[in-house]
Specification:
Number of strands: 0
Order of helices and strands: HH
Radius of gyration: 26 Å
Largest sheet: none
Shape: elongated
């Protein structure tokens, strides 16, 4: 009986410890240095970029 209680306690502690484990990919940031993905609009010409940005703005600002 005592062995079963110890086993249950150990399994519970192991489950709690496993819940604390974090498997995320961390990006270290430096002031003034952008490390994100590049925006495909940067490769577009000015008129195409302006049109795409206007479409994005109009998509999310429909309530105003």
């Amino acid at each position: 009986m005592i062995m079963a209680v110890r086993t249950i306690i150990m399994l519970g502690l192991a489950a709690m410890a496993a819940g604390c484990y974090e498997t995320t990919d961390v990006t270290e940031f430096e002031p003034g240095v952008y490390k994100g993905e590049t925006d495909p609009l940067l490769d577009a010409d000015a008129s195409e970029r302006a049109q795409t940005l206007q479409e994005r703005f109009d998509t999310v600002q429909t309530d105003r």
